[in-house]
Amino acid sequence: MNAGTVTGAAEFHALPVAAAAERLGVDPARGLNSEEAEARLGRYGDNVVRVPAGPGPIRRFLAQFHNPLIYVLLLAGVVTWVFGGHVDAGVIAGVVLLNAVVGFVQESRAQRALEALSKMVPVETTVVRDGVPQRVPAARLVPGDVVELAAGDRVPADVRLAEVHLAEVDESALTGESVPVVKATEPVSPSAPVADRAGCAYSGTLVTRGQARGLVTATGGETQLGGIQHLVATAEVVPTPLTRKLARFSRQLSVVIVVVAAAAFVLGVLRGSPAPEMFTAVVALAVGAIPEGLPAAVAIVLAIGVVRMSRRGAIVRHLPAVETLGGTTVICTDKTGTLTRNRMTVTTLAAAGSPVPVAEAGETLRECLVAGVLCNDAELEEGDPTESALLGSAIAAGLDPAAIRAAAPRTDTVPFESETRTMTTFHGEVAYLKGAVEEVAARCEAELVPGGEVRPIDRDALDRVHGSLTARGLRVLAFARVTPGAAPVLLGLQAMHDPPRPEAVTAVAACRSAGIDVKMITGDHAGTARAIAGEVGLASGRVLTGADLASLPDEQFDDAVAATQVFARVSPGQKLQLVQALQRRGHVVAMTGDGVNDAPALRRADIGVAMGAGGTDAARQAADMVLTDDDFASIEAAVRVGRGVFDNLRKFIAWTLPANIGEGMVVLVAILLGATLPIVPVQILWINMTTAVFLGLTLAFEPTERGIMGRPPRPPDRPLFTGSLLRRVVLVSLLLVVAAFGAFRLQLGLGASLAEARTTAINVFVGVQAAYLLGCRSLDRPVVCAWPGHSRMFLLGIGLTAGLQLLLTYVPVMNSWFHTAPIGLVSWLWVLGAAVVAFAVVEADKLLWSRLSTGPAAARRRNR
Ligand code: ATP
What we know:
The protein is an alpha/beta fold. The protein has five domains: 12-49 and 120-234, Distorted Sandwich (Calcium-transporting ATPase, cytoplasmic transduction domain A); 57-116; 241-304 and 643-863, Up-down Bundle (Calcium-transporting ATPase, transmembrane domain); 323-341 and 500-630, Rossmann fold (3-Layer(aba) Sandwich), CATH 3.40.50.1000; 345-382 and 400-497, Calcium-transporting ATPase, cytoplasmic domain N, CATH 3.40.1110.10. It contains 31 helices and 24 strands. The strands form three sheets. Strands 10, 11, 12, 13, 14, 15, 16, 17 and 18 form a nine-stranded mixed β-sheet that branches. The chain has an eight-stranded mixed β-sheet with strand order 8-24-23-22-9-19-21-20, sandwiched between helices. Strands 1, 2, 3, 4, 5, 6 and 7 form a seven-stranded antiparallel β-sheet that branches. Strand 13 (422-427) and strand 14 form a beta hairpin. Helix 8 packs parallel to helix 25 (681-694) and helix 24 (632-673) packs antiparallel against helix 25. The longest helix has 42 residues, at 632-673. The chain is elongated, with a radius of gyration of 34 Å. It binds adenosine-5'-triphosphate. Adenosine-5'-triphosphate is lined by residues 334-336, 384, 386-387, 416, 418, 421-423, 434-436, 475, 477, 522-525. This is Cation-transporting ATPase F.
């Protein structure tokens, strides 16, 4: 047991707060002191739930043999052994072993990449220690700690609530009840079930509303959720639509191949070939032809994509996201923090229709600044940047926030909610309200004129000054004073500047050239939204507000949403409607969000994107991807990587299928013609193993092609096997068979021995595969025009393959195991010639089709 509880923790819900605090040995106002916290950490251990480890390496290794194909291969080995082919049987065993080792290594790599991801989003929590609130990793919490919780936070441990402000908690993870539970501080009956313990909040549940302060009663494995592994933030490994499709394809192909092989076997035996020899031949046919490495290769390509994305600031939580990202057609993004820096500075104040510079506001608009300090949860360097900016303006105007706060202690709070767009704090008799200008002004009758006079609001003047501030891209907040018995008084406006991120400007431009529609969806004012949209290069055109959306007739909704790029004053619920409208139009939608209310939209979007730095745990949990830097440019980078991943998958498929089909066909054609096999079974196994690993897998590491963001997005319904891919596969398969057979026959005709002729055929086969690998570095453009950089893996693969072929050809032991023989220079010229011809044919095919596909007929074909 590595984490702790305090005796009788189960009954904390039945104790009054004071008694609970006493039992936990903590002062709820000051928290533990650091030494005590350290000591308890030693005693109770980290606040983490240890997940049971997966199967160990030995079991994972053995699992590699659990494959029908391997069974057949082993059976073939046994048959071969029984009939005296001891060396061949040994080779088959070696191949099986090698296959298992390669599979094991690949699987472990992919697994490690994914495991690393789950650790990259640190979970932090606010804890009061030595009387000071501070952020600490949730893992360092100990029983007795005092934690502060706010809407959007995941409860980091089991706590007894000591203070609550309108707090509601979604306990569905624990109780299955999806309606949030209202929390209180009163004790309940000792026998109350977990769902009824209003005075407690449990680890892993989500605060959906309000704020609370609680005393940690249990951590780690001792929490209610301690045993439930799935709540730990591990990246999920689920099959993606693509991997599922490919797995099905491989299975279907396998069945076809096995049937063909069985037919070939019967035919061969009827023709008089010895059954054991035939058996090994058709097993080789099957093993060569079945693309058994395909699913593994796909998993690796995706895993590499995950790692590449994480280097660009995007952490993928669900593997399918890697694949979906590449097909994204619309990105809906927040404004604040994603397109802008979220570093706010108040540049101007305004009251009674006129702007007032910050420096002068200390005298004329003192109470507006005071309201900004009091109705505020931030510190200058910490907390919500909007609120920090309000402290900054007070200081710039010569006020002392600490003194102001000390003079008017807060007695109650109604926290900010993005639905109401306001926040209120109470300070004895006075309350201060701050928020969106429309919301605050609507509640006021009177306004303060700089200098002290109170008069009825001049709404036209207010609208004018508000309009001129938002048109400059400023975020404007209004402030009001509420006193009992009097109408609320508008104290003034504070307008803050939040500069756009320069990288976002470039990224927006890149998305637009990539045919991806970028839409800004913000809670801010339409004027501000339009101005910022202009600055980052979004076509601003018409701005739709939340109110506009609500009044649109259903039949116009989808069209209006599709045609608009800027949405302002949008509520989180409307974000969900926007996603749905775009999806009805066939779009693949990426949507960002940071608040707890954004979770449904994030879940519904094809790619939900949450903020790693600024967002809530609730949003992160609902998202497919988390941005470590909250930057829009990271989304664009992830889309770029996603497109590259999809490209590499197509490249791998385009390369591997002809290799498999070619290998199978060489055997099949020989059997059908009753001819001598140009390549014998153990040799096929050799080719299959070495090329799949050293040539094919290099495609997984291919860099993203240049100009990948210059193409339109892949249509969502486009199949993986497009016509051009199939054509290429057939073409290259035929090339391989003709080259191998041709080389073999010609060598025999020139008087070479059978072993020499076969060795030449093998080398021709591998040479053509290597040349084709080169061609696969770009599927549609001649590689000479589109030479990608970063060729290290590619060159390494070619080099290793060449080395292995030399070993196979010249080392005596290899000669006897694989029935090969050293060959002369002329044979190598054949190999080279075949490779060059194959390369030229593939390149010519690309040129021809790119010609054909740029004409008007092609445009029609594409649209079909
Ligand atoms: P985005 O969705 O692009 O991040 P946003 O951050 O501007 O947009 P919200 O944070 O929901 O959206 O803010 C919406 C409006 O609520 C703001 O324009 C402002 O008027 C008001 N507002 C924001 N923060 C506060 C706050 N801490 N207290 C009071 N009102 C606020």
